[in-house]
Write a structure and sequence with these properties.
This protein has 253 residues and is of the alpha+beta class. It has 2 domains: 186 residues, Gyrase A, domain 2; 38 residues. It has 12 helices and 4 strands, in the order βαααβαβααβαααααα. Helix 1 packs across helix 3.
Amino acid sequence: MKVTLINYTKDAESLLIFSKKTRLSMSPEGYEDIKILPKKAKEEELRYVFGTIGSSWEFVDYVFLIEGVSRAFTHQIVRHRVGVSFAQQAMRVVDVSDGFDYISTGKCKNNKVYDGTMGIIKDQYKRLVDQGVDIQDARGILPTNISTNILVKINLRALSGLLNERLCFKAQGEFQEVAREIRDEVMRIHPWAAPVLQVNCVQYGVCKFPNFKDCPLRVKGLVKDFDSKAIEKEWEKTTLEVQPKGMKNDRAN
Protein backbone atom coordinates (compact mmCIF):
# COMPACT_ATOMS: atom_id res chain seq x y z
CA MET A 1 0.00 0.00 0.00
CA LYS A 2 1.26 3.46 -0.87
CA VAL A 3 -0.31 6.87 -0.28
CA THR A 4 1.06 9.85 -2.20
CA LEU A 5 -0.13 13.43 -1.80
CA ILE A 6 0.11 14.62 -5.41
CA ASN A 7 -1.56 18.04 -5.10
CA TYR A 8 -2.96 20.37 -2.46
CA THR A 9 -4.15 23.93 -1.88
CA LYS A 10 -1.17 26.25 -1.78
CA ASP A 11 -0.97 28.85 1.00
CA ALA A 12 -3.81 27.06 2.76
CA GLU A 13 -3.21 28.83 6.09
CA SER A 14 -3.93 32.26 4.63
CA LEU A 15 -6.94 30.98 2.70
CA LEU A 16 -8.46 29.46 5.84
CA ILE A 17 -8.02 32.71 7.75
CA PHE A 18 -9.33 34.80 4.86
CA SER A 19 -12.46 32.67 4.48
CA LYS A 20 -13.15 33.04 8.19
CA LYS A 21 -12.73 36.82 8.07
CA THR A 22 -14.98 37.02 5.01
CA ARG A 23 -17.74 35.35 7.01
CA LEU A 24 -17.34 37.66 10.01
CA SER A 25 -16.84 41.08 8.46
CA MET A 26 -18.35 43.23 5.73
CA SER A 27 -14.82 44.51 5.04
CA PRO A 28 -12.45 41.60 5.58
CA GLU A 29 -8.71 42.16 5.50
CA GLY A 30 -7.20 41.68 2.09
CA TYR A 31 -5.85 38.26 1.23
CA GLU A 32 -2.41 39.70 0.58
CA ASP A 33 -2.37 41.32 4.03
CA ILE A 34 -3.11 37.97 5.68
CA LYS A 35 -0.32 36.25 3.74
CA ILE A 36 2.29 38.48 5.41
CA LEU A 37 0.98 38.10 8.95
CA PRO A 38 3.61 36.95 11.49
CA LYS A 39 3.64 33.24 12.30
CA LYS A 40 2.23 33.70 15.80
CA ALA A 41 -0.61 35.84 14.49
CA LYS A 42 -1.52 33.13 11.97
CA GLU A 43 -1.40 30.48 14.70
CA GLU A 44 -3.83 32.51 16.80
CA GLU A 45 -6.19 32.95 13.84
CA LEU A 46 -6.07 29.23 13.04
CA ARG A 47 -6.97 28.35 16.64
CA TYR A 48 -10.18 30.28 16.09
CA VAL A 49 -10.78 28.67 12.68
CA PHE A 50 -10.46 25.18 14.16
CA GLY A 51 -12.62 26.06 17.13
CA THR A 52 -15.68 27.09 15.18
CA ILE A 53 -17.90 25.62 12.43
CA GLY A 54 -15.93 23.90 9.70
CA SER A 55 -17.23 25.71 6.60
CA SER A 56 -13.90 27.52 6.21
CA TRP A 57 -12.07 24.20 6.10
CA GLU A 58 -13.82 23.36 2.83
CA PHE A 59 -11.63 25.83 0.95
CA VAL A 60 -8.57 23.60 1.37
CA ASP A 61 -8.24 20.54 -0.89
CA TYR A 62 -5.90 17.56 -1.01
CA VAL A 63 -5.43 15.03 -3.83
CA PHE A 64 -4.10 11.58 -2.91
CA LEU A 65 -3.08 8.68 -5.11
CA ILE A 66 -3.67 5.50 -3.09
CA GLU A 67 -2.05 2.43 -4.62
CA GLY A 68 -2.05 -1.26 -3.83
CA VAL A 69 -5.26 -1.37 -1.81
CA SER A 70 -8.18 -3.77 -2.04
CA ARG A 71 -11.50 -3.00 -3.65
CA ALA A 72 -12.92 -3.87 -0.23
CA PHE A 73 -11.14 -0.74 0.99
CA THR A 74 -12.32 1.39 -1.92
CA HIS A 75 -15.90 0.21 -1.37
CA GLN A 76 -15.58 1.73 2.10
CA ILE A 77 -13.83 5.00 1.25
CA VAL A 78 -16.39 5.93 -1.42
CA ARG A 79 -19.02 5.97 1.32
CA HIS A 80 -17.47 9.27 2.36
CA ARG A 81 -19.40 11.24 -0.24
CA VAL A 82 -19.60 14.89 0.84
CA GLY A 83 -16.60 16.99 -0.18
CA VAL A 84 -14.87 14.04 -1.86
CA SER A 85 -14.23 13.03 -5.49
CA PHE A 86 -12.86 9.73 -6.79
CA ALA A 87 -11.30 8.22 -9.91
CA GLN A 88 -10.58 4.49 -9.85
CA GLN A 89 -9.42 1.68 -12.10
CA ALA A 90 -12.48 0.24 -13.86
CA MET A 91 -12.50 -3.55 -13.91
CA ARG A 92 -15.12 -3.25 -16.64
CA VAL A 93 -12.33 -2.31 -19.09
CA VAL A 94 -9.08 -3.39 -17.37
CA ASP A 95 -8.12 -6.89 -18.58
CA VAL A 96 -6.37 -8.84 -15.80
CA SER A 97 -6.23 -12.18 -17.62
CA ASP A 98 -2.42 -12.09 -17.31
CA GLY A 99 -2.88 -12.21 -13.54
CA PHE A 100 -3.61 -9.81 -10.71
CA ASP A 101 -2.36 -8.97 -7.24
CA TYR A 102 -4.63 -9.28 -4.23
CA ILE A 103 -4.64 -8.09 -0.63
CA SER A 104 -4.53 -10.46 2.34
CA THR A 105 -5.87 -9.08 5.61
CA GLY A 106 -6.33 -10.43 9.13
CA LYS A 107 -6.19 -14.22 9.40
CA CYS A 108 -6.28 -14.54 5.61
CA LYS A 109 -2.58 -13.65 5.51
CA ASN A 110 -0.51 -16.69 4.52
CA ASN A 111 -3.68 -18.80 4.49
CA LYS A 112 -3.48 -21.70 2.01
CA VAL A 113 -7.24 -21.86 1.45
CA TYR A 114 -7.42 -18.13 0.76
CA ASP A 115 -4.39 -18.09 -1.55
CA GLY A 116 -5.55 -21.26 -3.32
CA THR A 117 -8.96 -19.76 -4.00
CA MET A 118 -7.34 -16.65 -5.48
CA GLY A 119 -5.35 -18.90 -7.80
CA ILE A 120 -8.51 -20.65 -8.97
CA ILE A 121 -10.19 -17.29 -9.67
CA LYS A 122 -7.19 -16.15 -11.72
CA ASP A 123 -7.31 -19.31 -13.84
CA GLN A 124 -11.06 -19.24 -14.37
CA TYR A 125 -11.08 -15.52 -15.24
CA LYS A 126 -8.45 -16.15 -17.91
CA ARG A 127 -10.46 -19.07 -19.29
CA LEU A 128 -13.54 -16.87 -19.60
CA VAL A 129 -11.64 -14.13 -21.43
CA ASP A 130 -9.96 -16.69 -23.71
CA GLN A 131 -13.44 -18.02 -24.55
CA GLY A 132 -14.42 -14.56 -25.76
CA VAL A 133 -16.43 -13.46 -22.71
CA ASP A 134 -16.48 -9.66 -22.47
CA ILE A 135 -14.22 -8.25 -19.77
CA GLN A 136 -17.15 -6.36 -18.28
CA ASP A 137 -18.94 -9.69 -17.75
CA ALA A 138 -15.93 -11.77 -16.72
CA ARG A 139 -15.15 -9.29 -13.95
CA GLY A 140 -18.11 -10.70 -12.03
CA ILE A 141 -15.91 -13.45 -10.59
CA LEU A 142 -13.04 -11.18 -9.53
CA PRO A 143 -12.47 -11.03 -5.74
CA THR A 144 -13.32 -8.08 -3.54
CA ASN A 145 -9.72 -8.03 -2.35
CA ILE A 146 -8.19 -7.63 -5.81
CA SER A 147 -5.52 -4.94 -5.71
CA THR A 148 -6.50 -1.57 -7.14
CA ASN A 149 -5.52 2.11 -7.23
CA ILE A 150 -7.75 5.09 -6.52
CA LEU A 151 -7.36 8.85 -6.86
CA VAL A 152 -9.05 10.85 -4.09
CA LYS A 153 -9.69 14.59 -3.88
CA ILE A 154 -10.98 15.68 -0.48
CA ASN A 155 -11.37 18.98 1.34
CA LEU A 156 -10.06 19.51 4.86
CA ARG A 157 -13.48 19.38 6.48
CA ALA A 158 -14.33 16.06 4.83
CA LEU A 159 -10.85 14.72 5.59
CA SER A 160 -11.26 15.58 9.27
CA GLY A 161 -14.52 13.62 9.37
CA LEU A 162 -12.98 10.68 7.55
CA LEU A 163 -10.05 10.49 9.97
CA ASN A 164 -12.35 10.86 12.98
CA GLU A 165 -13.88 7.54 11.99
CA ARG A 166 -11.18 5.63 10.11
CA LEU A 167 -8.30 6.23 12.53
CA CYS A 168 -10.49 4.47 15.08
CA PHE A 169 -9.63 0.85 15.88
CA LYS A 170 -13.14 -0.07 14.79
CA ALA A 171 -12.13 0.49 11.17
CA GLN A 172 -10.76 -2.47 9.26
CA GLY A 173 -6.99 -2.76 9.60
CA GLU A 174 -6.31 -1.85 5.97
CA PHE A 175 -8.33 1.36 6.26
CA GLN A 176 -6.62 2.24 9.54
CA GLU A 177 -3.27 1.91 7.79
CA VAL A 178 -4.34 4.09 4.86
CA ALA A 179 -5.82 6.70 7.23
CA ARG A 180 -2.55 6.93 9.17
CA GLU A 181 -0.60 7.35 5.92
CA ILE A 182 -2.99 10.07 4.72
CA ARG A 183 -2.60 11.87 8.03
CA ASP A 184 1.19 11.64 7.84
CA GLU A 185 1.18 13.06 4.29
CA VAL A 186 -0.88 16.09 5.33
CA MET A 187 1.12 16.64 8.52
CA ARG A 188 4.29 16.75 6.42
CA ILE A 189 3.13 19.88 4.59
CA HIS A 190 0.52 21.31 6.97
CA PRO A 191 1.54 20.47 10.56
CA TRP A 192 -0.73 23.26 11.81
CA ALA A 193 -3.74 21.12 10.78
CA ALA A 194 -3.00 18.55 13.52
CA PRO A 195 -5.93 19.64 15.78
CA VAL A 196 -8.49 18.48 13.19
CA LEU A 197 -6.66 15.38 11.96
CA GLN A 198 -7.37 13.17 14.96
CA VAL A 199 -9.39 10.13 15.88
CA ASN A 200 -12.77 11.31 17.17
CA CYS A 201 -12.16 10.57 20.87
CA VAL A 202 -9.02 12.72 20.81
CA GLN A 203 -10.43 15.57 18.74
CA TYR A 204 -13.84 15.85 20.39
CA GLY A 205 -13.51 14.00 23.69
CA VAL A 206 -16.35 11.62 22.86
CA CYS A 207 -16.42 8.10 21.47
CA LYS A 208 -17.73 7.90 17.89
CA PHE A 209 -18.76 4.26 18.35
CA PRO A 210 -19.96 3.72 21.94
CA ASN A 211 -21.09 0.16 21.12
CA PHE A 212 -17.55 -0.87 20.16
CA LYS A 213 -16.69 -2.71 23.39
CA ASP A 214 -13.45 -4.23 22.01
CA CYS A 215 -11.69 -0.89 21.62
CA PRO A 216 -8.26 -1.30 23.30
CA LEU A 217 -8.55 2.23 24.69
CA ARG A 218 -11.92 1.39 26.25
CA VAL A 219 -10.57 -1.89 27.64
CA LYS A 220 -7.76 0.06 29.34
CA GLY A 221 -10.27 2.48 30.83
CA LEU A 222 -8.96 5.52 28.97
CA VAL A 223 -12.24 6.32 27.22
CA LYS A 224 -14.15 6.58 30.49
CA ASP A 225 -12.64 9.91 31.55
CA PHE A 226 -11.66 11.07 28.05
CA ASP A 227 -8.18 12.20 28.92
CA SER A 228 -7.35 13.25 25.36
CA LYS A 229 -3.59 13.37 25.92
CA ALA A 230 -3.51 9.89 27.43
CA ILE A 231 -5.78 8.56 24.66
CA GLU A 232 -3.62 10.11 21.94
CA LYS A 233 -0.43 8.71 23.47
CA GLU A 234 -1.92 5.21 23.67
CA TRP A 235 -3.42 5.45 20.19
CA GLU A 236 -0.06 6.44 18.68
CA LYS A 237 1.69 3.33 20.02
CA THR A 238 -1.16 0.85 19.41
CA THR A 239 -0.88 -0.63 15.93
CA LEU A 240 -2.78 -3.87 16.41
CA GLU A 241 -5.50 -4.67 13.90
CA VAL A 242 -8.43 -4.80 16.28
CA GLN A 243 -11.53 -6.21 14.61
CA PRO A 244 -15.06 -5.66 15.97
CA LYS A 245 -16.91 -8.75 17.13
CA GLY A 246 -20.60 -9.56 17.08
CA MET A 247 -21.47 -7.25 14.18
CA LYS A 248 -25.15 -8.32 13.94
CA ASN A 249 -26.31 -5.47 16.12
CA ASP A 250 -23.41 -3.10 15.50
CA ARG A 251 -23.16 -2.48 11.80
CA ALA A 252 -19.86 -1.40 10.27
CA ASN A 253 -18.94 -0.25 6.74
